[in-house]
Design a protein that fits this description.
The chain has about 375 residues and is of the alpha/beta class. The protein contains 14 helices and 15 strands. The protein folds into 2 domains: about 10-205, 3-Layer(aba) Sandwich (Rossmann fold); about 215-375, P-loop containing nucleotide triphosphate hydrolases (Rossmann fold, 3-Layer(aba) Sandwich). Bound molecules: adenosine monophosphate. Adenosine monophosphate (AMP) binds near residues 25, 52 and 53.
Length: about 375
């Protein structure tokens, strides 16, 4: 199957070629026709499999064949993911030579400037539920012009404090609005909530297993929690890590560990919700540009972020559940590139990690480091 057979408009196929994207991924093959056919859809596919383009490509086609001021909303649980989706959309428009725009609508930016930009009638609005709901209430976004709403990382959007806001927002849309729910970890609870927002949802499921097989999962174990940092330092050298996300469970630990790494001459920075939004933006840009080697993060970075050339994801602490483990480790091994997920366990964490592997079906290997070389643990 190719993009021509999926009836993607020629300008977009040209744009994809400029992005070195020649062949659709499985989820794109399965989703594009359904979305172009105006179905409501719940799309489940592993991390890094091209879900963003799976909905953007057919939706841009829908915009091109609709009224000039039709709009599409993409909701995202984090500012960073919203910003990334907005960049992909604008990049597509520019490379395709289409006179359309995508606008980022997030809370940290000046609302009156956003209102001015809305007057130019951007085709795609990407943002956080809070800010978008506010702009709909103030009638700066005309709800009846919105033809499709996408819930990116739907299980998170429909599962926290934004749910009541989303429900209220959905009441202002036209009855026939198309709704698309996307996630790597769509659960029954999310599908139930989705079913309360709209009907006739087509389920599209591309995954054979839940875990991408281009990610290798390894772990180092110690009985003593205090040994973890030493193992981390050794593993950064032994594994030849070029660019990695290092996950911590607490914001304050992210700051502490990044300072300790810097103290040992390792190029690191912290990135978490306690950090100022502008600083966060700068840090992520520096990381994308390769100016930071180890980004020490909280779970804020676990969803959707697509950083090219990410060789490793390291868990310094184990997340609470297997779903979160999949989101964290899914930041590497994207678009068929190889990636390595490393976890450093202490005490009872080992048992928990083994249970994640069993539950979600990934192959997990215990390793040791001897004289600077990674070997299989006996
Ligand atoms: P996503 O899952 O949407 O975050 O996409 C993950 C990565 O895959 C991004 O870097 C995309 O640019 C890339 N990608 C998306 N679709 C394709 C495709 N058909 N072929 C190759 N790479 C792709």
């Amino acid at each position: 199957m190719n993009f021509e057979e999926l009836k993607i408009v020629p300008q977009l196929i040209e744009a994809l070629k400029k992005m070195n994207i020649e062949k659709p991924t499985e989820i794109q093959v399965l989703s594009i026709g359904k979305i172009a056919g105006n179905h409501n859809a719940a799309i489940k596919s592993q991390t890094g499999t091209g879900k963003t383009l799976a909905y953007l490509l057919p939706l841009i086609k829908k915009l091109m064949s609709g009224e000039k001021d039709d709009q599409i909303i993409v909701l995202s649980p984090t500012h960073e993911l919203a910003s990334q989706i907005n960049t992909v959309a604008n990049d597509l428009f520019a490379k395709a030579g289409l006179p359309m725009k995508s606008l980022l609508l997030i809370g940290s930016t000046n609302i009156s400037r956003q209102m001015d930009q809305l007057k130019k009638k951007p085709s795609i609005l990407v943002g956080s539920p809070g800010r978008i709901a506010e702009l709909i209430t103030q009638k700066k976004i005309k709800a009846h012009k919105v033809k499709t709403i996408v819930f990116d990382e739907a299980d998170r959007l429909l599962n926290d404090e934004s749910l009541s806001q989303i429900k209220a927002m959905c009441k202002s849309f036209m009855r026939d609005i198309q709704m698309i729910f996307v996630s790597a970890t769509m659960n029954d609870e999310t599908l139930k909530v989705a079913g309360s927002l709209t009907q006739n949802i087509v389920s599209i499921n591309a995954q054979t297993g839940q875990t991408p097989d281009n990610i290798e999962h390894i772990f180092f174990h110690t009985d003593d929690e205090r040994e973890k940092f030493k193992i981390l330092r050794k593993s950064i050298n032994a594994l030849n890590i070029e660019k990695a996300l290092l996950f911590m469970n607490k914001n304050e630990d992210a700051l502490k560990i990044s300072e300790r790494l810097i103290h040992h001459g390792i190029n690191a920075a912290d990135f978490h919700s306690a950090k100022d939004k502008l600083e966060r933006q700068k840090t992520i840009t520096d990381f994308r540009n390769g100016d930071i080697k180890i980004l020490v993060v909280s779970d804020l970075a676990a969803r959707g972020l697509d950083v090219s050339g990410l060789t490793h994801v390291i868990n310094y602490n184990l997340p609470d559940d297997a779903t979160q483990y999949l989101h964290r480790t899914g930041r590497t091994g994207r678009a068929d590139k190889k990636g390595i997920a490393v976890t450093i366990t202490a005490g009872r964490e080992k048992k928990l990690l083994l249970s994640f592997a069993e539950k979600t079906g990934f192959v997990l290997k215990q390793k040791d480091i001897r004289e600077g070389v990674v070997i299989d643990a006996i």
